[in-house]
Amino acid sequence: MVQLSGKDRAEFVGRMFDRISGRYDFLNTVMTGGRHYSWRAKAVELLEAKESGVALDVATGTGDFAFDLLNKSSVTKVVGVDFAGEMLNTGVRKAYDRGLGSKFIPNIGDAHKLPYKDDSFICATVGFGARNFIDLPGAMSELVRVIKPGSKVVVLEIVRPAGLIISKIFLFYFRKVTPYIGGLLAGDKEAYTYLPESVQSFMTASDLADVMADTGLGEISVNRVALGTVAIISGKKPD
Q: What is the pLDDT of residue 42?
């Protein structure tokens, strides 16, 4: 699973998310105790657009981050990009159920090669998708490229906690409990075995903030929630 690399890993992850698309929202709520709603709301609060326009949500999945973005008066539409077609289809159905069908623009695409012009969007977000990028610095550079000067990128992600005790508790939960819950409630233990493996091999919040800074973002803000196991990191593209 995480031992795979490049195209093989991308294809594995895409198939995995397609399989669990129908249960993804439910499992996300169960495993976070419903806290993912407040985390996204906090992430959206960090976005301060200087003008109205279209936002970009990469790794949009079933669309929840995109729908929260549409609550902002400055966001007229959201382009949601994902490489898992069934996840995106679920997002489209949810958009129409919410009366947002004309404001949610779904695109199957690759975060590493975004098919958009420079300086196109008033902001960009990534929710629980950064750790699945094959080339994180490359994907982050693409996000910076396509947002307008003075706009922000906000990343919401599960990260490796820095504290020794919390880290051990966190990894125990993900290694032992998460696959069991995933197998029981989603019928896909393999997918929910990938989750703890992907987190274990990922970065701390500080590491992720450094990557974002290296792509040219400034005014980096790091907010840790869930005892430091989840980070909300924002950065601003220079004017």
A: 96
Report pLDDT digits (tens) over 118-129: 999 999 999 999
Number of neighbours of residue 71 by Cβ within 10 angstroms:
9
Dist. CA 39–CA 41, nearest whole Å: 5
**pTM over the 0.85 mark:** yes
- The DSSP output letter for 91 is H
Structure tokens at 231: 């980070």
User: What does R_g of the chain's alpha carbons equal in angstroms?
Assistant: 17
Q: Where are the beta strands (DSSP E) in the chain?
A: 53-58, 75-82, 104-108, 121-127, 147-158, 218-225, 230-236
Beta strands across the sheet bearing 230-236 = 104-108, 75-82, 53-58, 121-127, 147-158, 230-236, 218-225
Residues 143-169 have pLDDT tens digits of 999 999 999 999 999 998 876 666 677
Tokens of 86: 């069934």
Which numeric CATH code is attached to 6-159+204-236? Answer: 3.40.50.150
How many residues comprise the chain?
A: 239
205 C-beta neighbours (distance < 10 Å), count = 22
Taking alpha carbons only, the member of 40, 28, 17 closest to residue 90 is 17
- Packed helices 189-200 and 6-20: angle between N→C axes, nearest 10 degrees: 130
The winner for highest mean pLDDT among 1-15, 95-109, 166-180 is 95-109
Q: What are phi and psi of 58, to 5 degrees?
A: -95, 145
pLDDT, mean of residues 105-114: 96
